[in-house]
Write a structure and sequence with these properties.
This protein has 109 residues and is mainly α. Helices cover 84% and strands 0% of the residues. The chain has a domain at 53-82.
Length: 109
């Protein structure tokens, strides 16, 4: 569980750094899901649950990135806020699958 949370935190941090530095071109929610899936080895169920969350975030993120009135610090705060709104949903999806897969491995022992 700790390793999974470390992976999630690492992916989130890397995503924020790339967004703030402008190192990545705009990605579709499906492309982001693919990257997360590869990094976290997501199940098909997790992918189907995460895609709507990424799709809901995408226009908000684009609005923040395109707003010329925001300073870099304000932009970072806005992006962080958007991601923090989705974090509880994402963590629930990831931990629910971990719990179910972990309990099945324990019951096999």
């Amino acid at each position: 569980m700790k390793q999974r949370m470390f992976q999630i935190t690492t992916v989130a941090l890397c995503t924020c750094v790339f967004l703030l530095c402008g190192g990545l071109q705009a990605q579709t929610p499906a492309e982001k899901l693919q990257e997360l899936s590869q990094a976290l080895h997501l199940s098909p169920a997790q992918k189907s649950q995460l895609l709507p969350i990424l799709e809901a975030e995408a226009p908000k993120i684009e609005d923040v990135k395109k707003n010329p009135n925001l300073s870099p610090q304000q932009r970072a705060m806005e992006l962080r806020s958007i991601h923090q709104q989705a974090d509880p949903l994402v963590q629930r999806i990831l931990s629910r699958s971990n719990t179910s897969s972990g309990s099945s491995s324990v019951s096999k022992r």
